Predict the structure.
Amino acid sequence: MTHPIVILGSGQAGISTVRELRKLAPEVPVTVVSSDDCSFYAKPTLSNALAAGKSAAQLVVTPAEKLAEQLKLTLMPHTRVESIDIAGRQLITDKGPVAYSALVLANGAHPIRLPLSGSGAAEVLSVNNLTDYATFRDALQPGMHVAILGGGLIGCEFANDLRSAGHPVTVFDVAPQPLGRLLPPAAGAFFAEKLSAAGVKFEFATGITQVDKDGAGYLLASADGKQFRADLVLSAIGLKPAIELAAAAGLKTNRGIVVDRHLRTSAADVYALGDCAEVEGLVLPFVLPIMNAARALGKTLAGEATALSYPAMPVVVKTPACPTVVSPPAMGAAGAWVEETIEGGVRALFKAADGSLLGCALLGEASKERQAIASQLPAVL
Ligand SMILES: Cc1cc2nc3c(=O)[nH]c(=O)nc-3n(C[C@H](O)[C@H](O)[C@H](O)COP(=O)(O)OP(=O)(O)OC[C@H]3O[C@@H](n4cnc5c(N)ncnc54)[C@H](O)[C@@H]3O)c2cc1C
């Protein structure tokens, strides 16, 4: 008996891979195993859905039954994978073993939790899937003041969305500016100014270390002894690739599950992509890298071994108060930022000594130059 191709995870990575595979192999048996309900949604909508008044159910793009029918899948929703038996070529799940002919690990990432102390620490929320979003939206009552821990991309998107939905918001970050890893100083200052003008309060150089319950809300304390009140606390510190299952099965892991350009892990017929994977040293938890990886892997699984390449993949930051596009230079790239303040925006270009463009951050009016500038950026891989 031929076993199916088994996909662990029904997020963007798992389902995009199946869509690509189906273009070339309409009939090959595919089983998707996931701890969630297998309904398909676009995760980026989680951080701009509050102002639009959307419930978790309204964010579902394709319900599970329809997905199964469209893609001719066997779905195993609400099924938790407990371990991977590489020698036996099967997943061990809480509903029994699932044998595979090939296995795709697309099991995402975990929100990083700060080591907070205090009686309210366990009640700090984070939003990385539809269920988290439903929990957050249910807890959020009109006018509640929300404290956001982390002024990165996801924290700032939630801050803008919460403001648009009428909530007071304070963003805390240990860095001196928002989007610290993506924006050079003038761009960071411009971004902070625009979001502040929209009503977002920032507390920079402030690391929250303690969250205590305080009546119906919370009292937050920083390392340097300052105190702040909030009705709800949302953590947006970042994500950590989910490598535990792979590591326990003896697969090579580093920051993510280590794969080559064919998305092959260190075990035969086991592949990985998406937020859980590290491709040639790159962990890129965004939609465009996933779509590129899924296209390559779909072909490989259909029998046409295909290496992944990444073009330049600028990320649009979903902050209407300051339209922003970023494409950070590769880690350790030699060069320098050149920042130019233009009417209503900042154009920041990261250039090598020979003048070639290696990265960019385009804010406000400059974000309209996205296509022209992106076309000059080098391929990522
Ligand atoms: C709020 C937010 C906003 C974002 N905005 C953008 C944006 O604007 N642009 C952009 O490019 N990117 C954005 N991203 C990132 C992008 O959404 C992710 O990179 C992408 O959705 C990850 O897809 P994935 O399939 O790798 O992981 P996930 O979607 O996390 O899927 C993981 C799957 O694995 C399953 N799973 C995990 N462990 C187990 C287990 N043990 N057993 C069974 N099943 C398991 C889960 O149920 C899930 O189905 C955003 C992310 C967030 C959180």
Summary: The helical segments are 12-24, 64-71, 130-139, 153-164, 185-197, 244-248, 287-301, 370-374. The first strand starts at residue 5 and ends at 8. The mean pLDDT is 97. The chain has three domains: 5-110+239-301, 113-235, 323-374.
